[in-house]
Amino acid sequence: MEDVILERHGAVALLRINRPAARNALNRAVIDALGGHLLRMENEHDIRCIVITGDERAFSAGADLKEMAHVPATVMARRGASAIWRALDQLGTPVIAAVNGYALGGGCELAMGCDIIVAGEGARFGLPEIRSGILPGGGGTQRLLRAIGKHRAMLLLLTGDMLPAREAHAYGLVSQVVQDGRVVAEALALAARIAGMPPLAVHQIKEAVRHGQDAALPTALSLERNANYLLFASDDRREGMQAFAEKRPPVFTGS
User: Fold this and answer.
1) Which helix or strand (DSSP H or E) is residue 94 part of?
2) CA pair distance 162, 171, nearest whole angstrom
3) Would the pLDDT of 159 be above 80?
């Protein structure tokens, strides 16, 4: 049985974590498979948006602690950042997390590493690593801090408590909350909308947000301006503006 199932929906790729008996815990096989899929799809220009999901019970309940329990610290240090985190940090293609059930520990970090989070009403988010004597090591402390602010982040990090979807949305961690049974369908519909946008503009917006969020404002604004100058040289910019003037749908080619 495949640990990660790939489905194609036109210009959208859907990746399903497929370890239901372990609540989709992230073992090495899943992490490597997800990372491999993402890095490969970055070079497949007909894929314009990616959705990652689990099943109705869990997006992912976190790292596979049974696998991690006896890994020496030196081995962890040699491994460095896992393939999935490296891929999410490099990817220019937008990624949507479609979250049902539990998104805990590494599963919450995986969702936060995506660009948009669509959550079911029954979804639960949390970073319970402190209860196992460790901390979130896949970007959890830093991404949660940037998403919801220091004081809310510290409350969750130091207690390991779970955050219901509606609260997560109010805090700014989740993009949308939808009916549990509609999570994947809504995420795919959103992905299809994004896939229909001009690819160069999509990539430049993602780059500007990713690199600008931690830069000084003048630096970030300069990054934004230079990205826009680049887009003004694209065929898609000309097509978009001409289509607007002619009152017709644009046809974007990514050039």
Assistant:
1) none
2) 13
3) yes
Q: Which tens digit of pLDDT belongs to each residue from 196-227?
A: 999 999 999 999 999 999 999 999 999 999 99
Fold of 199-246: Lyase 2-enoyl-coa Hydratase; Chain  A, domain 2 (1.10.12)
Whole-number Å distance between alpha carbons of 187 and 53: 9
Tens of pLDDT, residue by residue over 64-116, are 666 565 665 665 555 555 778 888 988 999 999 999 999 999 999 999 999 99
What DSSP assignment string belongs to 76-87? HHHH-S-HHHHH
Locate the domains of the chain by residue range.
4-195, 199-246
**Complete DSSP assignment for 111-134:** HHHSSEEEEETT-EEE-GGGGGT-
Q: Is the pTM of this model over 0.90?
A: yes
Measured in degrees and rounded to the nearest 5, phi and psi for residue 200 equal: -65, -40
Q: CATH number of the domain at 4-195, please?
A: 3.90.226.10
Q: Say which residues have a Cβ less than 8 Å from residue 83's Cβ, sequence separation at least 6.
A: 31, 32, 34, 35, 36, 39
Q: Please identify every residue annotated as catalytic.
A: 63, 106, 109, 129
Bridge partners of 102, per DSSP, are 58, 124
